[in-house]
Amino acid sequence: MKKIKVFLRLSQVANCGVGYYRQYLPLKKLEEKGLIELKVMDYNGGKEEIKEPFQVQFSPDRRKIIDVKYNTPFFKQYLEWADIVYMCRDESPGFLAVMGGARQFFKKPFLADIDDYVQFTRPHNPGYLSFNPYSVFNDLNFCLLNNVDGITVSTEYLKEVYKNENKKIFVCPNSIDVKMRDKVLNTPPQIKKKKDEIRIGWAGSSCHYENLKQLINPLRKILAEFPNTTFHYTGLFGDLFNWPEFKGRIETVKFVNLDDWPKKLKGMGLDIALAPLCDNHFNRAKSNLRVLEYWSAKYPVIASPILPYKFIKNGKDGLLAMEENEWYDAIKSLVLDEKKRNSLAEKGYERLNKEFNIDKNCLIWYKAFRKFI
Questions:
Q1: 35 and 171 fall within a common domain
Q2: How does residue 55 score in pLDDT terms, banded at 50, 70 and 90?
Q3: What does the buried/exposed string (b/e) look like for 330-339 if buried means 16 or more CB atoms within 10 Å of the residue's CB?
């Protein structure tokens, strides 16, 4: 069977974990399997800012495109070469204009990926500056989804909410490169553990303020009750966990380059990993990636019973907690039971390897691409 030629265009919007998990990783796996030929433009995992490969010249009133100049010859060459053009979500007018024009001119199928319900971005999320209820970017997002040949999404919920924007929507679930993650499983804690220390933690970006607020009372109670517990977390949350009474027992973990993240995550040395989520439209459309990453590091997980995390088998490969007293009880149960922590971690890792391994799940992207060839 002839290999599919895929041109992957990633802009600065997805030059991070979004582009890595949603496009770069599954396509690189398909390339390794010999199923596709792949050309990637500009992606560097967030190490450097990506500049657009084209410049759009508008009329003085910005109602017409006068000219498009390519900053690199590869952009046009890749478009001519490809069977399919795959791109991240990007609502900038210049991007929409050029990619829309290229789709009509080159007459190739263009597919776009979206992994957030952007119209319901939360006020505490930095993205709310762009996607508030009065923003034009909401309309530009619909413009993108209506003017491509197909859409890939990360969850069934996203497929449902965007089903009126495009008739061809494919659910391609986030997955983990288990083989690569296994290489860092022996990474020792970067902050050396004290004797009998039980380390509780959270790992994620700085846009989870309202989600993390759920942990304030349960965590303070746990730290007060068990002097051998500590809390390590990533992100920038002001004074959310600035508790003087627990000085020396709360650590902020600095961010690293995407390539170094698996080792950094395992190096957090967690005994208990937390995944809180508030119940709202934006979060219901999120994927289970946080739990998958925890499982890849063999951490036992406690998560909110919100749609993305309802796949957890409560008591078997993780614990679910909604109310503050449930969070306290769940954390306490794992603090007191090392055997239970180890069992949940092992069962989670086994399920990750079986159901969410990108080495197998990359074929879901391939099947979607085949429908356009």
A1: yes
A2: low
A3: bbbebbeeee
Rounded to the nearest integer, the mean pLDDT of the chain is 91
Q: Which pTM does this prediction carry?
A: 0.92
What is the domain extent for residue 195?
178-355
Using the predicted structure, report yes or no on whether residue 280 has a pLDDT greater than 90.
Answer: yes
Residue written as tokens 């992100």?
A: 235
DSSP notation for 82-123 = -SEEEEE----HHHHHHHHHHHHHH---EEEEE-S-GGG--T
Query: HSE (CB half, 13 Å, CA atoms) of 74?
Result: 9
> Do 16 and 257 touch, CB atoms closer than 8 A?
no
**Is the same domain home to 167 and 183?**
no
The CATH number of the domain holding residue 145 is 3.40.50.2000
Structure-block tokens of residue 3: 């290999």
Helices (H), 149-251: 156-161, 178-182, 209-212, 216-225
- Give the Cβ contact number of residue 150 at 10 Å: 21
